[in-house]
Amino acid sequence: MNRYLLPASLLGTAVGGAVLLRDYVGGGICPSKATIQGKTVIVTGANTGIGKQTALELARRGGNIILACRDMEKCEAAAKDIRGETLNHRVNARHLDLASLKSIREFAAKIIEEEEKVHVLVNNAAVMRCPHWTTEDGFEMQLGVNYLGHFLLTNLLLDKLKASAPSRVINLSSLAHIAGHIDFDDLNWEKRKYNTKAAYCQSKLALILFTKELSRRLQGTGVTVNALHPGVARTELGRHTGMHKSAFSSFTLGPIFWLLVKSPELAAQPSTYLAVAEELEGVSGKYFDGLKEKAPAPEAEDEEVAQRLWAESARLVGLEMS
Description:
Shape: globular
Distance between the termini: 75 Å
Strand content: 5-15%
Structural class: alpha/beta
Number of strands: 8
Strand order of the largest sheet: 3-2-1-4-5-6-7-8
Number of helices: 11
Helix content: 40-55%
Largest sheet: 8 strands, mixed
């Protein structure tokens, strides 16, 4: 026997144990069996990765699913895939470019006009560790897409969500928020040397602060809002990090990543859970790490920072203050 080969029985045990470890680290499957028959769900960035899988999971549960994406060719293809896999024909593609305030306003106006109700809004779309790009309106790209775009979209749809109550808003943040800081003197990285990692962390911290302040404002409306860290997933989101191009990452760290990095299917379980679980009705303003509620970083719970960020965000996107 080749001394470097494990016997089949031991190999099977090793692989099985690795799979169990990966499932444990991944956080598991959504425990709720609840269906959402007839409920309307919007998922941003749903043409690939966690967004597409979340849309698929919710389509399986009977929802009327709207995929909101920038690339309509990919969005239509994703909608077709989901319809075919779930046999739910109430899955549709709509154009939404979160890097354009004009596009966000047009999307929201169509939803308000064409949809009787909106029960769930999953703010999933994101860019990660991209170069120092700016949005159509001059915002730093990660802040603009990950946070400001969803801030405006959610606010424009609030009346529809309130009219559809009980309804839910789900913001996909990240564990990276713990390394974030809201720099009110330079939110758009116009004064400092650009740090793509710090900009990403700031955008994800902003989403949790937004969640906290929006929850406070929505008390008594029947609309809840929660944030979550879905886990690190094998998706296109990390394409700017360069790790997939590194031989060291591929061959040395590859086995570790296989164990610790979630599939899109597993990473979609937390957002599915927050969207459907009956036991979460009325739960709002919380942060979930996977399927479990946890305390976020201290700055994410600072009410003064949250209120100041809300006011500044409203000013930046041209939203009337209330």
